[in-house]
Amino acid sequence: MNVALITPYFPDERTLDSGIANHYQLLAQNLAAAGHHIVVVHVRPSYEHEQDTFSKHSPASQITVLTFKVRVPAIINRLFKNQWAIVDMVLKLRCMLVTAGAIRGIIKEYHIQIIETSSYFSLCYFLSHKKIRIPLVVRVSTTFSQMLTGHYPFKSRGMDLIAAMEIAFIKKSRQLITHAKSHAIELEKLYGLDARSFRIIAHGISIPTLKTRSGSDVTRVKVLYVGRLEYRKGTDVLLSAIPLVLQQCPHVFFELIGNDPGNQNQREFEQKNETDILARVSFRGRIDLTSLTNAYQSCDIFVAPSRYESFGLIFIEAMSFAKPAIGCAVGGVPDIIIDHYNGLFARPGDAQNLADMVIRLAKNESLRKVMGSNARKTVEERFSGKKLAADSIHYYQTLLVNT
């Protein structure tokens, strides 16, 4: 099968930590490993100092990456020099137009039979109006509209337009994928979509090789948090729970990894707590992938008390290292954590209950090992890159039979 994956993000020298980029790299690698020919169409803004507008390379056998580097016309930059939101909107629209202009030639040259794309930034918005005569599969994760609501401290009509175009693109798409039934239901509530129109294909990850913990590590219990330090992620609940845990468990240490704008959460935590508490809590900020891997490997318990997660990839990442996970039964998290099997649920927003769950695992090494083993098994069976590719191939073949 010849498959085109059209994406606004794909790993390169500038894109090192993107969920969309990592998803399409993993999907491409595992589809190719299954014997399929993959063309990644990466349409992105041109980076500073880049002179060319197109490049092509093959990172692995049976994978070709076509990168389209899109620029805003100079006159737009001059006219709207101090209005970055307008420039950004024009750039995103041009990315859509470049995609529409290139795809017919790509289909013909590479004999493409099926296309999958992300709804994010709607690269195939104009393509959906054309009769390309092959299935166009649209994967919907967190929408740009949801990102604007939860993560952007500013608004603009340009951003609102791009967000509205994504929802319109999703509504007129015939083949839809999302990662969890709960997210399909959420999209139905937000935008009037039919949750039943989505094929559920979970995200996957590369399964890491487990390493034996060194003897120096077993004398203390490390609790790890990974994610942005913000209200939606339940950071305030975690920071309130930490002293409650440390008062009862002097052998426990906390490590928090993720962006904390202005170190605000860290400063507030340091102002509220005594030295003996602060000595057992480490705020590491954003770190590189190697350091993150080491953090997962060396922790004993993973915790992320999010108030909402459309999926919860961080839980899968932690569980792949055979770590029990503590989260809340919100969004897509119950599709990953099975309470009392591979982790524990804490009540959303309840610091004392969260502390109780951490204490329970911190004081019971055998329970941690059993749940950790079950966590690894869950990921191997349901969330591997191989499973992602197999589920995708099955769906693609169904569409081709019915085309």
Automatic annotation (TrEMBL):
Which molecular-function annotations from GO does this UniProt entry contain?
glycosyltransferase activity
Can you give the residue ranges of the Glycosyltransferase subfamily 4-like N-terminal domain?
Answer: 19-206
Top-level taxon of the source organism: Bacteria
- This one is known as Glycosyltransferase family 4 protein
Q: What is its EC number?
A: 2.4.-.-
Keywords (alphabetical) are:
Glycosyltransferase, Transferase
Do you know which InterPro entries this protein is assigned to? Glyco_trans_1, Glyco_trans_4-like_N, Glycosyltransferase_grp1
Checking PANTHER family in the record gives: SULFOQUINOVOSYL TRANSFERASE SQD2
